[in-house]
Amino acid sequence: MSTESCISSRMTDTSTHQATSPFLVAALYHFVSVPHFESLRAPLQQLCEDNGVKGTLLLAHEGINGTIAGPDAGIVAVLAHLHAMPEFARLEHKESRASKMPFVRMKVKLKKEIVTMGVDNIDPNKIVGTYVAPKDWNALISDPDTIVIDTRNDYETAIGIFKGAVDPNTKTFREFPDWVKNNTGLHNKPKIAMYCTGGIRCEKATAFMKEQGFEEVYHLKGGILKYLEEVPQEESLWEGACFVFDERVSVEHGLKEGGHKLCHACRNPITAEEITSDKYEEGVSCSQCYDSRTEEDRLRFRQRQLQVALARKRGQKHIGT
Q1: How far is CA 232 from CA 14, 49, 226, 229, 255, in A?
Q2: Which residues form the Rhodanese domain (predicted)?
Q3: What fold, for 23-110?
Q4: Residues contacting residue 139 through CB under 8 Å, at least 6 positions apart
Q5: How are beta strands 63-70 and 23-31 bridged, if at all?
Q6: Could you say which of 196, 202, 286, 289 is catalytic?
Q7: N or C: lower Cβ tally within 10 Å for the chain?
Q8: Spatial separation of the C-alpha atoms in residues 193 and 89, rounded to whole Å
Q9: Contact criterion met (CB below 8 Å) for 318 and 305
Q10: Active-site residue 196, yes or no?
Q11: Is the fold of 23-110 the same as that of 130-240?
Q12: Which of 38, 43, 44, 82 is nearest to 61 (CA)?
């Protein structure tokens, strides 16, 4: 069987699902040494554009990370291209679907790190936590000897979290190492269980924890996305929705599109209830950011929102949203 056939056979292939959600979304990452990563950018960018694929892919010495969306055939072509490279032959991806194209354009970027923690010499290929399959996750995090840590940022944890998990309330992943060092209580239990959206942050987070002397460190393989895909809702310990970095904003069990929208003023996810608030104005403010903004800010955002509305009338998408 060809590489394309192997990938295609793993795709969501129900005709009804494709009809209602025609765009396939593939989230992927892979830690591997890629000394020549700069040379991969242009061909990958062109291939994505030629196949109607949009999203963001990050390339660095340590590997690849990103999320892309497009027609099924386009995603198959891009994944086959990556799998054909020896470095990415073992690349895994997670799939979901979207009713609308969730990205504005395609960007392949060159980076120092594929996920930025800001700590040198952290290599998940050398030291990393123990992977736990979604089917075994509930038992681990229900163990009274386990501390469960959400490695995501505050705007992500605000709409969903595992039952009983510790929320570090970080603004960026760069804050996580200091949070660990300042929380001596993490040594009070023998087991540390960590999770994130798709698994990539936990690769570095668990490696960091191991280097800090924590011995029993575990992380959810495939992240929240894989858990929501595989674990039945009636058995789930997940509470809320999972923030995703595209225009769907959130997904729920079965990776169905959630009901959140994004406030384009503060970039935070907002609920249908928050949209009814007097402080909500599309593209200008929401109840989360209204009090921290000035009237000058809101005037500037209204001018931007006007450009967004004009672009919609022309059948275009404003690049700044």
Answers
A1: 19, 36, 11, 8, 11
A2: 142-236
A3: Alpha-Beta Plaits (3.30.70)
A4: none
A5: antiparallel
A6: 196
A7: N
A8: 28
A9: no
A10: yes
A11: no
A12: 38
For residues 37 and 59, the answer to whether their CB atoms sit within 8 Å is yes
pTM flag (> 0.85): yes
Instruction: Tell me the two tokens of residue 188.
Output: 């009070």
Residue 276: which H helix or E strand, with range? none
185: buried, middle or exposed (CB in 10 Å: 19+, 13-18, 0-12)? exposed
Structure tokens at 68: 């892309």
Domain boundaries, the chain: 23-110, 130-240, 260-320
Q: Is the dihedral of CA 182, 183, 187, 193 positive or negative?
A: negative
pLDDT in single tens digits along all 321 residues of the chain: 454 544 544 554 444 455 568 999 999 999 999 999 999 999 999 999 999 999 999 999 999 999 999 999 999 999 999 999 999 999 999 999 999 999 999 999 999 999 999 999 899 999 999 999 999 999 999 999 999 999 999 999 999 999 999 999 999 999 999 999 999 999 999 999 999 999 999 999 999 999 999 999 999 999 999 999 999 999 999 999 999 999 999 999 999 999 999 999 999 999 999 999 999 999 999 999 999 999 999 999 999 999 988 877 776 665 555
Number of residues written out for the chain: 321
